[in-house]
Amino acid sequence: MRVDLVLANWHLFAQGAWLTIQLTALALAIGFCIALPAGIARARRKRFVSPAINAYVYLFRGTPLLVQAFLIYYGLAQFDWIRGSWAWAYLRDPWWCALIAFSLNSGAYATEIIRGAVETAPRGELEAASALGLSDRQRDWLVLIPSALRRALPQYGNEVVFMLHGSVVASVIALQDILGAGRTLNARYYLAYEGFLTAAALYMAITFAIVGTFRLIERRYLRHLAVANAR
Amino acid sequence: METLIAYMPLLARGALVTASLAVLSLALATAIGGLAAAVRVGTGWIGQGVVLVYTTIVRGIPDLVLLLLIYFGGQRLINQASAALGGGPVSISAFWAGVITLGIIYGAYLSETFRGAYMSVPRGQSEAARALGLGTVPLVFRIVMPQLVRFALPGYANTWQVLVKSTAVISVIGLADLVGLARQAGQSTREPFLFFTAVLGFYLFITWVSTTIFERMERRYAVGYAR
After folding, report:
1. Would you call B62 and A164 a contact, using CB atoms and an 8 Å cutoff?
2. Rounded distance, CA A151 to CA A116, Å?
3. Which residues in chain A have their CB less than 8 angstroms from residue B210's CB?
4. What is the pTM of this model?
5. Among residues A136, A148, A177, which one has the least CA distance to residue A15?
6. For residue B50, with 0-12 CB atoms within 10 Å meaning exposed, 13-18 middle and 19 or more buried, which class applies?
7. What are chain B's domains?
């Protein structure tokens, strides 16, 4: 076990951790922006929109993230009209391709989570809001969405961990994320496991940090359930 | 389209590799998960502790990291062990490294599913069986197991769907599965979009088929229960 080589190359892992966290956080943020309107529209079974959202969710949840990333990074390069367009400046860059794939993927999973949370909104809560004279928009923003997001919290915590773990796909399209750093270390010094073991430890640490953070957030925002759970 | 038809035999071979990888991994994961769940509910604190450490570690690490660790690190360990025993180098194939990795990962998830399902079977069932004089073996296999299936099925189906998608990463260590072959074909024909779209279609097809099968099984095992 060559701990010295891991320590001597700590900056590789620090840069890798930064890239992993950056990609994961951005993808989750963009995915959330897709999922909030999509999840609500889906729960309300809007005509025309709802089947389209369904197809999107089914496609991205039913296929591997790795293949989605390959399709965007390698696949789109097949078309001359894409290579000739302004978008090519982004689509030739693995960072942007990873971000696009991760965001669309996370958006699909989060859409399902939000759909579920909106569908399970207690009727009485929404009726009470209307009875108090709130307009439809006020009812949505002040009552429905905050309460749905609370209900979605535990599942969304799982989605955050899932996205972190999915982000290893970045290293396959030649990005230097945490796993990329591990692979570089192993290749440079002809090591069998030191780099991967360090990467595994880092991913585990970040996973536990996420799980712990969500536990705190849940304790704060699901306080009204604490009494019921204690019984 | 003609390119795709010309490459059909190759893609079919890849699809077969992917499918057998997934099925064998599920079998291993079921065995590991069942064993871990049994240890979790049936033994003292040492066994429980070991299982808890196993599931916690596995759920903290991404699939690809564990795969590389097992494929490259495991290779080194096996060779060292083999050299110590006076043997020559042994090589693990990408396929079996994939089966072992996916088995270990999804075994951890399944152990939780099985444990939860076991706890959901009412205690009265095994107490009644005991009162009627059944031994432990028939009690487990004829009373608890058939009822456990109903509770375990939704979680089992879910794990299977995630496992199938996970098989794609095994192509990273050079396995000639559907993803690996499609990548090669895309490179040599310069039509990668076409091939990766076909791969997406294959995975959607598996998702659809397994959803249909599992829904039918869930209905079968819920016969006799009011909904």
Report:
1. yes
2. 9
3. none
4. 0.91
5. A177
6. middle
7. 2-221 (1.10.3720.10)
